[in-house]
Amino acid sequence: MAHDRAGLISPSTRSSQRRPGRAGRIGLLVAAVVPLGFLLLFFGWPVAAIVLRGLGEGGLGETLLDVRTWRIVGFTLGQAALATLVAVVAGMPVAYVLSRLDLPGRGLIRVLVTVPFVLPTVVVGIAFRALFGDGSVLAIVLANAFFNIAVVVRTVGGLWSHLDRRAEDAARALGASRLRAFTSVTLPALRPALGSAAAVVFLFCSTSFGVVLVLGGARFRTLETEIYLRTVQLLDLSGAAALSLIQLVAVVAALAAGGMARRRRETALRLSPAVNSARKPVGGDWWVVGAALTVLIGLLIPVGTLLIRSVSTSQGFGLAGYRALTGEPENGTLAVSAWDAASNSLRAATDATVLAMIFGVLAAIVLARTRRRGIAQLLDGVLMLPLGVSAVTVGFGYLVTLGALPDELRGSPVLVPFVQALVITPLVIRILLPVMRAVDDRLRQAAASLGASPWRVWREVDLPVAARSLITSAAFGFVVALGEFGATSFLVRAETMTLPVAVARLISRPGELNTLTAYAACTMLMLVTAAAVVLVERIRVSGGSDTMGEF
Q1: Does an H or E element contain 102, and which?
Q2: Number of domains forming the structure of the chain
Q3: Is the pLDDT of residue 545 over 80?
Q4: Which of 39, 319, 337, 472 is the most buried (most CB within 10 A)?
Q5: Which domain CATH number covers 69?
Q6: Residue 101 gets which letter from DSSP?
Q7: Is the pLDDT of residue 168 over 80?
Q8: Per the UniProt record, which residue ranges are transmembrane (predicted)?
Q9: What is the mean pLDDT of residues 131-140?
Q10: How far apart are CA 518 and CA 523, in angstroms?
Q11: Is the pTM here over 0.90, yes or no?
């Protein structure tokens, strides 16, 4: 029995066993070509056009020598750094409560933390405008932090829940105070997750558009809003291209730093045991619980303010804004009614979600099954580029490249779903990839050895495991597409205007009814977002795991 058992298998049988491997490799190649082709056409082409225009028209040197450019760069980086600090400080106690403590209502806490992350940027901007009045640096910083606390909670909490509590307990037993044990034992272990979260939050805050546009106006400008204003108001395409190139370099550097931090976090997670260390709060835990509740109340204040302002008229409480959502545009403010704009948003978001699920699932399959780690990491980084590169830069790139398209495509509403799919596909990949990688490859090999095709292997082995994550990614993708504003604002026409674009135009026009309608529309978007997050949380609880995946 010690001889080679391959000799007992006929040549035809060995050939049939090899075919699934070859078919699988061909299938992976085809699966990789589809999302990469989509990325090349709808991301690589417009971004390359921006780079060439910024370098080719001589505007880069003039822009670099302009003092105003570096003032804008300084403000962009400064507000992003402050917002990152606020998000990290606010997110830590919530991460501790969710990962370490066994408290009632943890599902509600997750919902309250997650809703801001997927809210449309224009909604958050208007909510903080309703709270703070005219824009200020404080409002911009707090609004950007409001968005990104969920990133800190999910990223840091994911690693924190894996840490063995016994090391910290040993430090306490040797006489260390609670603070000393945390700073000397727990905090160093959390450093990979903190670095990963901080890098992602800084990236999101530095490319924030809707928040700064609504709150900053003409007083406070970031690179993102300056690109938009130069393109739309000043028609300075050369200067906008130069600024886009500067921002692109900074974003790529931030993505590289974030990628390294994320790999360190993944390594730390692999090295950490899967433990369930949640326990009832004792002693000083209640101070942390109090801090977490304070953060949650802070998250609810802008939301509550927006709800109240949506029904506050000069004659008292009323529903004039909500009634206006179903009426015709007033005084020529908009070319379509708010109801038509909402219908446009729903159609575009649905189409974008379908597209993103196709591209995202194919990409996740390729990344999960690629055996060469270097290739997988490079491919992962390329697919994540749209997550960090400015939506305004991409939207401006479309304006530059639309001239090469046929006339019937330049104003086509088909472009909007593809742009929104570009924004949400990385989110779909991030949610699906950890689940796809967790599938035991031996099950796939066993199915393939029995003659199952690659499609049937995925349907019978991967799909049952990934079903909940597929629903999660679709739900989150839909609400993110529903609120996408940056790139969409460059492409919509009067008859295809989406609700976030309509809200931004309403809030910029005088008149109480315009303002009330904008507040009412923001409230409706917020309720749709909250419903999607509640659905995801119910799926997570029924599945017994966190289906949000990685950020």
Answers
A1: none
A2: 1
A3: no
A4: 472
A5: 1.10.3720.10
A6: B
A7: no
A8: 26-52, 72-96, 108-131, 137-156, 197-220, 240-261, 286-308, 352-370, 382-402, 414-433, 465-483, 516-536
A9: 84
A10: 9
A11: no
